[in-house]
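Notes to self, Integral membrane protein:
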Amino acid sequence: MAEIFRERIVDTGRVPLFAFFTAFIVVFLLTRVIVRLIRARPRGPLRNVEPGGLHIHHMVFGVVLMLVGGVAGIALPDARGWAPVAAAAVFGAGAALTLDEFALILHLSDVYWTEQGRQSVDAVLVAVAMTGLLLLGLHPVGAEGLGGDAAVSRSALVAGYAASLAFDLLLAVITLLKGKVWTGLIGLFLPVLLVVGALRVARPGSPWARRRYAPGSRRYLRAVRREERLRRPLVRAKIRMEELIAGRPGAPR
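result:
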């Protein structure tokens, strides 16, 4: 295991990214444990931070940590050793605290324990998935840069690269317009998923379906059947997983 870690993380220069990833997950899980304990026992030893009656959301501490970690990482661009690793870990902790209240930022309202609050968990899962793919050595579309044979002219390389990038981004936009957010985001790292997402039928209610699928049409009915047969069981499984990790919206029991 140590040898694999050295080959995949240390030798590839991904230790700061690994520190960010680890701190992000650990702080998010600890935060959810603490807020669930506070929710279950408001008069217990763990309580909300309310100096002078002002409730301070943990997102505030997250923003501060992100500033500290981000500025430290910028101020020490050529630093070696544990300094950039520590800065990345601090930034990851701050990002976890901030994204855990993503729904509050989005709605400008305290929706933490409502159905809308699930959007915070979705944002965290997206961040974990994207960072995990980066740790595995995958790069988003367009991040690979120009390579190829030296015998090929620079202009031909640029033209081919630009065409490939434009095509991949077009597929990503189509996939997202079809309501397939996860497929579109992960497809930025695995372009074959963009092809599948762009070719398959759109989700009912997506911008693509509303504009191109007339109610009652063959494509609309296919979209509805696919949603009921495949998508809804996956959504229910995702919700159960989110509730296991983050708690169930609504009044505490």
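- The chain has a mean pLDDT of 88.
- The CA atoms of residues 57 and 148 lie 50 Å apart.
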